[in-house]
TrEMBL record:
Residues 52-463 form the Major facilitator superfamily (MFS) profile domain. It is found in: Membrane. This is Major facilitator superfamily (MFS) profile domain-containing protein. GO terms for cellular component: membrane. Keywords: Membrane, Transmembrane, Transmembrane helix, Transport. The chain crosses the membrane at residues 50-67, 87-106, 118-142, 148-166, 178-199, 211-234, 276-298, 318-338, 345-363, 375-394, 406-426, 432-458. It is a multi-pass membrane protein. It comes from the Eukaryota. InterPro entries: MFS, MFS_dom, MFS_trans_sf.
Length: 495
């Protein structure tokens, strides 16, 4: 690993010296900050929140909207106009995820080498333009090709945003911020139903069906967001200019002390490979797969499920929105509570259990009102778990390479859930979609088991470190101790 240039007292070297004195006692330390430092911490955090989160939420909201609007488009003559039959709709839904999965880790290696605003704005414009052109497709093959390109462009978005947000906040802060970021999914899910109803009502205007207008307008909105991102998206902390020199030095030092890691400038292939072998990363990725299998199923196929209640396309689109509004409110509220308590695992497990309950109601009960209530429980539970799974995983590893690899690998495996969801809800399983619902329940149950297993072993490791059973690592030179990251005996895993 390359060392930092030996220039006079750069912030990261000051952080290293202070880190040694603090013995890696980050957010769990009992050392109290003086009032000046606490005030500085609050002021800088507020400035970062205002500059980073709203723009990230806005862009990713449009990103997610472009991904799932195919479910709304289906209700406005998409299959009829493109002469799609059998499983062809399911195929164009899942094919998006193939390039998405393949390119996520390489994408995070690229974003660590260039400014995020160049990379993210370029990707945003690419998939926005592709979505817009989807509205001009006239056959299954053309639409399939467009969906592939959407997956290519969008592959770097989610892991890139997670890496950028994770680089700006301490381990304790990042959970609530990721929840606010991922509420973009709920906003998109809510808006998707409203836009699907509104834009779909343009059906026949200028000779285009309602599904074409959905793609035309939503894709153009995304292209506009790309222009905003190019001018206003923040870089990584070390390259930032909106903080004063004093604030920047303070914040870099705080990040190094509280996150307890040496911040590499670039992700390198050997570091990525080592990170992929970490069991904590594998467990996080599997939990995220379990989350995404249900999340994509609920998001993409909810309009189809509601249409089995005998509702019109307009009503089915409109009544997807309250479900996502409720899940967004609960998700952010639980993440904020989790942040204050500094607990993650228990809330992830609760989220999985609530989702299982809701999915069982939706697929097993015959009363449409109970089934609709089940969709609320399913969405609320799974979107409680989604941000906390990522935040929990990020809190257990140190360094840009590990964090970048974890977010990309978890997201990649999560997209396998999108492929699964696209295959398990064929039209032939109407009206209850029992096979698809059963698969989602199985993944949620497995995710809960992995969550509890990870919680148990990390808890045991914390006890061993408290008992001094890892103290032999203190005999290493100070520089080597600094590079131990989460393996340092004073590091405590977040529960």
């Amino acid at each position: 690993m390359a060392s930092e240039p030996k220039t006079p007292a750069p912030p990261i070297e000051l952080a290293e010296a202070e880190l040694a004195k603090s013995s890696f006692e980050h957010h769990e330390s009992n050392v109290e900050e003086d009032e000046a430092d606490a005030a500085m911490m609050r002021r800088i955090t507020w400035k970062i929140d205002l500059r980073l989160l709203p723009l990230c939420v806005f862009i990713y909201c449009l990103c997610f909207l472009d991904r799932v609007n195919i479910g709304n488009a289906k209700l406005w003559h998409l299959e009829r106009d493109l002469n799609m039959h059998g499983l062809q709709f399911n195929i164009v839904t899942l094919v998006f995820y193939i390039p998405y999965i393949l390119f996520e880790i390489p994408a995070n290696m690229i974003i660590s080498r260039i400014k995020p605003r160049y990379w993210i704005s370029g990707l945003t414009f690419g998939f926005g333009l592709t979505v817009t052109l989807c509205g001009l497709c006239t056959n299954f093959g053309g639409f399939l090709t467009a969906r592939l390109f959407i997956g290519v462009f969008e592959s770097g978005m989610f892991p890139g945003f997670l890496l950028l947000i994770g680089s700006w906040y301490t381990r304790r802060q990042v959970g609530a911020r990721l929840a606010w970021f991922l509420v973009a999914n709920d906003i998109a899910g809510s808006v998707s139903g409203l836009l699907g109803a509104g834009l779909g009502s343009l059906d026949g205007t200028n000779g285009y069906s309602g599904w074409s207008w959905i793609f035309f307008i939503e894709g153009a909105m995304t292209c506009f967001a790309a222009i905003i991102a190019f001018f206003f998206l923040l870089p990584f902390p070390k390259e930032s200019t909106f903080l004063t020199p004093e604030e920047k030095e303070f914040w870099l030092r705080k990040l190094a002390i509280e996150n307890a890691h040496y911040e590499e400038d670039k992700m390198k292939l050997n570091g990525v490979w080592k990170a992929l072998l970490d069991w904590k990363l594998i467990a996080t990725a599997f939990m995220y797969l379990a989350v995404c299998t249900s999340a994509y199923s609920i998001t993409v196929f909810q309009p189809s499920i509601l249409s089995t209640f005998g509702w019109s396309s307009m009503k089915a689109n409109l009544l997807t929105s309250p479900v996502r509004i409720a899940s967004g409110i609960v998700s952010v509220s639980v993440a904020t509570l989790s942040n204050r308590l500094n607990k993650r695992g228990i809330f992830v497990a609760i989220g999985f259990c609530v989702a299982i309950l809701g999915l069982l109601f939706t697929m097993l009960h015959h009363d449409y009102r109970v089934r609709y209530m089940g969709l609320y429980f399913g969405a609320i539970g799974i979107y409680i778990a989604q941000p906390l799974v990522i935040a929990w995983g990020v809190a257990q590893v140190a360094g840009r390479t590990k964090r970048g690899t974890l977010t990309a690998a978890a997201s990649s495996l999560g997209q396998v859930g999108g492929i699964i969801s696209a295959l398990i809800f064929p039209n032939s399983d109407k009206p209850y979609y029992v096979p698809g619902g059963s698969v989602c329940v199985g993944f949620a149950a497995a995710g809960c088991v992995v969550c509890l297993t990870m919680w148990f072993f990390l808890s045991m490791e914390n006890k061993m470190r408290k008992a001094g059973k890892r103290d032999h690592l203190r005999s290493l030179p100070q520089e080597e101790q600094y590079k131990l990251g989460e393996k340092h005996p004073d590091f405590r895993y977040t529960m």
